[in-house]
Design a protein that fits this description.
The complex is a heterodimer.
Chain A lengths: L1 E4 H17 L3 H13 L3 H20 L9 E9 L2 E4 L3 H15 L23 E7 L4 E8 L1 H4 L3 E5 L4 H16 L7 E9 L1 H11 L11 H14 L15 E11 L4 E8 L6 E4 L1
Parallel strand pairs in A: 1-3, 2-4, 7-8
Antiparallel strand pairs in A: 2-5, 5-10, 6-9, 7-9
Chain B lengths: L1 E4 L4 H5 L6 E10 L2 H12 L12 E3 L27 H7 L3 E4 L5 H10 L2 E4 L5 H5 L2 E8 L8 E15 L6 H9 L3
Parallel strand pairs in B: 1-2, 2-3, 3-4, 4-5
Antiparallel strand pairs in B: 2-7, 5-7, 6-7
Helix pairs in contact in B: 3-4
Chain lengths: 280, 182
């Protein structure tokens, strides 16, 4: 049994929230730079340059790259040999989110009820996904997610006959209808399989991958490549002003499913794809 | 690159075409979902607006909190379509421009033609960069709405692109068509 202290979790989560929002990954900046080489639209190139400069300012001054510092989506991998001392695990996560959003001057974007819409004031509750794994580590990933891109996401209960072509059509159609709203260039998370609630989770989890990473299964690696090529033919371009670079990446997560089903989900991320991980 | 100063006249709006890159200097006002709802309620009740929007530009934004020493926190545009139901009435009242991101409804595009208005997009997500062009920020109405309050922003060379001009052109449609590969 390894003991992990409540306060250590609070402090780690607070730092992850701030770092995720202010220190955009090099994989994103490198993708902007690669985009500059293929972008044909002068306005599109100008946008990519502005986004590179924006990330620089954000890093140097430790201010968020985007004002929508999002819902704090938390992925936990809890080793079966981990014992949290001094308080409850989820309380520690929420206390860490509240601390990080206050001390990092991050925007508080959560309302306590979907219809009555009163701001909770500290960006809690976090949206927590937990997996129990072997070992005695506590792995915490924070992936702040903005509203503009989240609103462009969708689940569809396809049937097996739709096949890959059906999934591809669903993904491209979702991107086409989203146009400029999710702040392209985007990253497209695709869930395939599982069931209704599982597939949405898969699409979100897919967004945790770094740009440039290749799917371990060559079958899906090929499909991901195909999706990016198709999306970049749409002409939507950076910010939807027209151009070549609409998606920086497409990532697929798949899971076994029922013989009658083939659920699919698209979770779109803006170019500020934020995620930071720590292991305690 | 065109440069404009607020408030806007009809002539200034007529000079702007979809696709133009523009730098705005002067005063602009923030406003998003809840503030729009209240503005329209005031107009419907024939009450005075807390700020005279004639000739003015509204920026759809909910900034992050300002760090000490900064006039404002990161302040990029939010999605405009949520303000579409309120927009034609504000254009009829005399508002001249809006800054946001994403498509507008045909009703808004028609109202831009009818009342000589313009819709600009700022770069979504470039919030740290955009905030550098905002020199001063004061909350002037609905401060109970927090980041959704109406703020008066003093901006210098604030970078935007014209999406919908007063002639019915739409950069999103035309740009996508131009670069589309079948």
């Amino acid at each position: 049994m390894k003991e992990v202290k409540y306060q250590d979790i609070v402090n780690t989560v607070a730092k992850l929230c701030i770092d995720a929002n202010c220190l955009i990954g090099d994989d994103i900046v490198n993708a902007f730079k690669s985009g500059l080489k293929i972008e044909e639209s002068p306005t599109g190139k100008d946008i990519l340059n502005q986004l590179i400069e924006n990330v620089e300012i954000s890093k140097n001054e430790m201010i968020p790259a985007c004002q929508d510092t999002g819902v704090a989506v938390v992925f936990l991998e809890v080793g079966s040999g981990v014992k949290v001392t001094g308080g409850e695990l989820f309380d520690a996560i929420n206390a860490g989110v509240a601390k990080g959003y206050k001390e990092g001057y991050l925007r508080k974007s959560i309302v306590s009820d979907p219809l009555r819409r009163k701001n909770t004031g500290d960006n809690t509750p976090a949206f927590i996904h937990t997996e129990i794994v072997a070992g005695d580590n506590l792995k915490i990933t924070i992936a702040p997610k903005g509203g503009g891109s989240e609103n462009m996401s969708e689940v569809k209960m396809l049937t097996p006959a739709a096949g890959w072509e059906g999934i591809k059509k669903f993904v491209i159609d979702r991107v086409m209808r989203s146009k400029a709203n999710p702040c392209p260039p985007i990253i497209v998370g695709v869930g395939i399989g599982g069931n209704f609630e599982k597939v949405a989770y898969l699409a979100k989890k897919a967004l945790l991958r770094d740009i440039g990473s290749v799917h371990p299964d060559p079958f899906y690696a090929e499909k991901e490549k195909e999706l990016v090529e198709e999306i970049n033919k749409t002409g939507i371009g950076p910010q939807g002003f027209g151009g070549r670079v609409t998606a920086l990446a497409a990532f697929i997560e798949s899971y076994p499913c029922h013989i009658a089903s083939m659920p699919a989900a698209v979770n779109i991320n803006c170019h500020a794809a934020r995620h930071k991980t720590a292991v305690l | 690159m065109k440069k404009i100063t607020t408030p806007l006249t009809d002539a200034a709006v007529q000079d702007l075409k979809a696709g133009d890159s523009v730098l705005i200097t002067g005063i602009i006002y923030t406003g998003r979902d809840s503030a729009h709802k209240r503005l329209i309620e005031a107009l419907n009740a024939k009450q005075p607006l807390p700020v005279d929007l004639k000739g003015q530009i509204i920026y759809y934004v909910g900034p992050a909190p300002a760090k000490p020493g900064y006039p404002i926190g990161p302040a990029g545009p939010t999605t405009s379509e949520r303000m579409d139901p309120y927009t034609p009435a504000l254009l009829a009242y005399g508002m001249k421009g809006m800054i946001g991101k994403g498509n507008r409804t045909p009703d808004v595009i028609d109202a831009l033609k009818k009342y000589t208005g313009v819709y600009f997009a700022a770069v979504g997500g470039a919030a740290a960069l955009i905030a550098k062009r905002i020199k001063k920020c004061e909350t002037i109405a609905y401060d109970d709405l927090g980041p959704e309050a109406i703020m008066k922003l003093t901006v210098e060379d604030f970078p935007v692109v014209v999406v919908n001009d007063c002639y019915g052109n739409d950069l999103y449609e035309e740009g996508m068509k131009k670069y589309r590969k079948s």
